[in-house]
Amino acid sequence: MARSKKKNDFFWVSFSDLMTTMFFVMLVLFVLTVVYLKLEQVKTVAKVEELEKIVQLEEQFKPLQQGGDFHYLKECKKFVAKDLMGKEIFEPDKTNILPEFREMTINVGKKLEDFLVKLEKKNPDFSYLLLIEGNMANTYDKRYSNNSKYGFKKSYERALEVYNLWVHNGIDFRKDNVEVIISGSGFNGLCREPIEENNKRFSIQIIPKVSNNI
Q1: CATH number, domain at 174?
Q2: pLDDT in tens, 32-55
Q3: Alpha-carbon distance 192 to 84, whole Å?
Q4: Which residue, 59, 104, 68, 115, is CA-closest to 202?
């Protein structure tokens, strides 16, 4: 009888220890779940705030669109200098900018620099990517394929020529919180003009980044 009572006491002690352990495990899991949900909530709020900032920033791009100096390609969010649209500003099959278009190109760079400086003052938490993209017009008989290496190389070199002209005339986007990317889409790319000759151009894209989170 005494032995049976001891076994019964041992069972309840073990059962109590098990329940205490289970309660502790459940408590830990509950705390971890609460912390995880709180972190996810904070992340969601932060993302919403960043999204709102970007939406507000897009409103601030309107002066560049409406200033009369740039034509805005809404479908791909690029800007093209109006004064240079439809004009062959480069020497045929070369990357040098023709003398009669150099001053126009410099003025485009100055206006772009002024806009970015004002934009940064309004949005100190932002940084920007400035994409300078060279574009090419194909021949009347479509001699070059859309993915022609010649087109990509030549359009890149022309975009680089534009950038170098700006730098040599004191236009330095990198002195502010702006990273510059030089690229060339050749005979390819989005938002090409239906009139092939009008693709003899370079285009600009400004990409905002919130803080260092994106």
Answers
A1: 3.30.1330.60
A2: 665 555 655 555 554 555 555 554
A3: 15
A4: 104
User: Which strands sit side by side in the sheet containing 202-210, from one edge to the other?
Assistant: 70-73, 78-81, 202-210, 126-135, 178-186
Domain membership flag for residue 90? yes
Residues 43, 130 share a domain? no
d(CA 199, CA 136): 6
Query: Which amino acid, 80?
Result: V
Question: What would the pLDDT profile of 131-156 be if each residue is shown by its tens digit?
Answer: 999 888 888 888 888 888 988 999 99
SS3 state at 179: strand
pLDDT at residue 194, as a whole number: 82
Please name the residue ranges forming H helices in the chain.
2-60, 62-66, 99-122, 149-168
User: pTM score, two decimals?
Assistant: 0.69
